[in-house]
# Entry
Amino acid sequence: NAGVTQTPKFRVLKTGQSMTLLCAQDMNHEYMYWYRQDPGMGLRLIHYSVGEGTTAKGEVPDGYNVSRLKKQNFLLGLESAAPSQTSVYFCASKVHLNTEAFFGQGTRLTVV
Amino acid sequence: QQQVKQSPQSLIVQKGGISIINCAYENTAFDYFPWYQQFPGKGPALLIAIRPDVSEKKEGRFTISFNKSAKQFSLHIMDSQPGDSATYFCAATRAGNTPLVFGKGTRLSVIA
# Structure
């Protein structure tokens, strides 16, 4: 059972480049989330989805877009990467509200 | 506005001692309070969680104390071990389509 899998694990981008981070879960969870983790800032919510075909903005959505075309996948896109988007990105999923959220291993992104 | 405030930012405890991490929240509608543990290079993982209908929950060496009137909750790690060295996050959420809100984290180091 793979749980939550993030691809890629590491990436270096040049300013202005675009990329997509993929999150895949095999637990049939309804809810999926993208967080970024920065030193001293904790985990901040970027975007989330409460079901296939739905997305919503979190605390820090600017510069990111998301899509949830399939229930098991949640994609995070950066259209024009900026150095301020250098961070570790975590995807999480859970089956119901007020239950355990399962996190992926993270994607370390560096924008130069 | 930070909805969940966590302290201290870092903590050093002797092996066998008690580690205490505190969190305070603003939103009285929150009704689920989990603690997550994160080891370097890994995603956060649920450690223990509590709902506001109880004042304390214990699982092994880990205990959550909850004070509804003060809007505070804390994690106590008894007989702290070097293997407990990690970053700990408190979080909160409420019924409805509301994602988890995390504190900024506490880096715990347990030294022999």
About this structure: Chain B touches chain A at residues 6, 9, 31-32, 34, 36, 41-46, 49, 51, 89, 93, 95-105 (CB under 8 Å). The mean pLDDT of chain B is 94. The CA atoms of residues 23 and 87 of chain B lie 14 Å apart.
